[in-house]
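Dear colleagues,

For the upcoming journal club I promised to circulate an example of a predicted protein-ligand complex. I picked one with zinc ion because it came up in last month's discussion. The inputs are reproduced below in full, followed by the predicted structure.
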Amino acid sequence: MAFNKVEHIGIAVKDLDAANEVYTQLLGVAPYKQELVESEHVMTSFFQVGETKIELLAATAPESAIARFIEKRGEGIHHTAYGVDDIEAAMREAEEKGFRLLNEKPKRGADNMLVCFIHPKSCNGVLVELCQKIPDNADKADVQLTISNDNAIIEK
Ligand code: ZN
């Protein structure tokens, strides 16, 4: 199954307000949403750039994967995210091809997405996120059933 687009690029930042200003200047557009992903201790900020997005990520707690990433590697590109039509099928296929998945079931990510991460060691050092948009009219209760409750933090 081919991915349908580069859904977004995630950038780890230290100071979200400062980074919002930088990226608003750079992209010529303000973020369309900020969203807390409580399970990951991350505050996100999204910019629309054509068909794709830039996602800024800032840690809200020292145990956040983003805090550890910045400690180790500094600010910078944290992951690339690809859109898929059927995340469970895409996960099975990736696993069959030998890619190491970081979560066994799709998780609810920011911006109304079901997400799964692939280990950076499988992808030349880049953390890869697969994401499937949750339809706006989806019965949320239904969707929730397919999502893992364990929101394990993404380990490097
Ligand atoms: Zn992302």
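Two points we might discuss: Confidence is low (pLDDT under 50) at residues 143-156. Strands lie at 5-12, 33-37, 42-49, 52-59, 76-83, 107-109, 113-118, 127-133.

See you all on Thursday,
B. R.
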